[in-house]
């Protein structure tokens, strides 16, 4: 349970200088980049510095550094108390920091700075986010029935793979599920009935990769690390490597999402800009989020074991029978199912990083000390450390399915996956993920559909370019419903 100090840090905390340093210009960022990707790895990179400085707030450099990012210097905030400063847009500017200390070329988004890269102080942010929130609200009635259809298609393919190979690569199936759902949601068209056909996930992945390459590693053999570092982390990959794939996505959305694009004019947004924002919302935000989020959910639920599976199946089948189907009301009654979704988002958030540039001089707090941050400093948060803060969560490294049931709901304010607290909602004035509530809903529906059809399963977990891999090794169909 959370300690009292996490809610409002005492005002008498000692004011300390921020520990750490950035090293020599050019060479310091390179050293930190090599540590981060190759010599230490992500979590050890941060944990070693916490141990060295005896502080969860410190100075460091974040990749990619030279020559992609002009200034890699950050102040890291790695605990549950300090991390939320990144949500306070009166204190931090979110301009062009969506993916880190660098800003991908606007060529990737049709020459427009899409909503994700705008600070709320910029006039266009409010109109674009209002447009996005309005679009999602208009599709509210389609969320559950459409997603159930897409999940049913995934299960058929999953069972075919299990029958043929004795195992199934969940990630590949999930990519198809995620792309098809969002394309059908916004375009009212099955991508298989368009020129995109079954290639949607491939087009999306090819467009996403060059934008995220500076902060990823391919996990190649060690002798290839210098080559990878040169190719991915030293110079930005050009748009032309993804141009044709992105054009196909844009053309399809432009052709089939007409009513949404027509509505954009009501918000003062030109059709072309609206379409590029819609592609970004569907492909980067939504498809990209589920691409990492659902495999993590499957991984953790699978690894936790049969006891949790039995409890989920009992709850889900009992409530669905009582409610006469999978409805919003039914989902709200499933306390364990809700908790399992929140726990997956806590232990392995789909987006692990947050950035913001200090707009003003300020003082931030960890559990034990206060630190002064100057205007212009870049603040960086590594979310998995904040949401696994041992001063807030008991057994933070353990997946506890019941963690947020009953009194545990009070801990939801420390679940930060959406660039905001789980207890808050996205608005046109903040930077919280506009699809935050939809992601939670879809995660619940996925579990409901899964455990309505299957009793238990086993999984083999691994690591990918972004997020986890999940291979289904065994699958037991429901013996009774």
UniProtKB/TrEMBL annotation:
<dbReference type="GO" id="GO:0020037">
    <property type="term" value="F:heme binding"/>
</dbReference>
<comment type="similarity">
    <text>Belongs to the cytochrome P450 family.</text>
</comment>
<dbReference type="InterPro" id="IPR001128">
    <property type="entry name" value="Cyt_P450"/>
</dbReference>
<protein>
    <recommendedName>
        <fullName>Allene oxide synthase</fullName>
    </recommendedName>
</protein>
<keyword id="KW-0349">Heme</keyword>
<keyword id="KW-0456">Lyase</keyword>
<dbReference type="GO" id="GO:0016829">
    <property type="term" value="F:lyase activity"/>
</dbReference>
<dbReference type="GO" id="GO:0005506">
    <property type="term" value="F:iron ion binding"/>
</dbReference>
<feature type="binding site" description="axial binding residue">
    <location>
        <position position="433"/>
    </location>
    <ligand>
        <name>heme</name>
    </ligand>
</feature>
<keyword id="KW-0408">Iron</keyword>
<dbReference type="GO" id="GO:0016125">
    <property type="term" value="P:sterol metabolic process"/>
</dbReference>
<keyword id="KW-0479">Metal-binding</keyword>
<dbReference type="GO" id="GO:0016705">
    <property type="term" value="F:oxidoreductase activity, acting on paired donors, with incorporation or reduction of molecular oxygen"/>
</dbReference>
<dbReference type="Pfam" id="PF00067">
    <property type="entry name" value="p450"/>
</dbReference>
<dbReference type="GO" id="GO:0006631">
    <property type="term" value="P:fatty acid metabolic process"/>
</dbReference>
<comment type="pathway">
    <text>Secondary metabolite biosynthesis; terpenoid biosynthesis.</text>
</comment>
<dbReference type="InterPro" id="IPR002403">
    <property type="entry name" value="Cyt_P450_E_grp-IV"/>
</dbReference>
<dbReference type="InterPro" id="IPR036396">
    <property type="entry name" value="Cyt_P450_sf"/>
</dbReference>
<dbReference type="GO" id="GO:0004497">
    <property type="term" value="F:monooxygenase activity"/>
</dbReference>
